[in-house]
Amino acid sequence: RAGQSEGAEKKEEKKQEGEREMASGEISTLPSATADSFPPGHFKEPKRLYCKNGGYFLRINPDGRVDGIREKNDPNIRLQLQATAVGEVVIKGISANRYLAMSSEGRLFGTRRATDECYFNERLEANNYNTYKSKKYPNWYVALKRTGQYKSGANTGPGQKAILFLPMSAKG
C-alpha cells in the first residue's frame, strides 16, 4: 500500500509540474504597427461575423463598400480576424483583400492598407456575442442596421442589437 501511495504522490507532483509549465507559457502578439499585410500563416481560420440585428453577415466588398448580406455563401463575408494585442483585432476581407476601417464620420469601409482606423477592441459580451469598438474613435462600434446597411459608428452604443456579432466558422 505504501508503494501505491508513493506512486500516486509522484503522479500528482508531475501533474502539478506540467500545469505550472503550461501556466507560465509565453503569449506572443503581433506588433500594433501599421503594415500593408501580415505574414502568411498568422491568421486563424476564416470567420463570418453574423449580426444579431437582422441576421446579416458582415461583408467587405472588393470596391471598399461594407454592408451586410444574408447569403452565407457570398465569398466577401469570409473574414480573417487577427489579434494585434490583447483584445485588439484587425478584420480583413479575404476575397476583397481589404481591411475593415472606420472613418472620422463613423463610416465603415474597406481599405487596402491597415491604418490606425483599422484597429478594433474585440469584447465578448455576457450574451456570448462579440462587439468591435473602434480603437481610434472610442465608443463607436462596428454595426449593421436591420436593412443590411452599415450603421454609422457615431450612432452606435452599448446595448444595441446592431453592434452584436457572432463569429462563425467560414471553412470551405
Automatic annotation (TrEMBL):
Residues 1-41 are annotated as: Disordered. PROSITE patterns: HBGF_FGF. Pfam families: FGF. It is found in: Nucleus; Secreted. Residues 26-35 have a biased composition (Polar residues). It comes from the Eukaryota. SMART domains: FGF. The keyword Nucleus applies. PANTHER family: FIBROBLAST GROWTH FACTOR (PTHR11486). Belongs to the heparin-binding growth factors family. This is Fibroblast growth factor. It comes from Hemibagrus guttatus. The lineage of its organism: Eukaryota, Metazoa, Chordata, Craniata, Vertebrata.
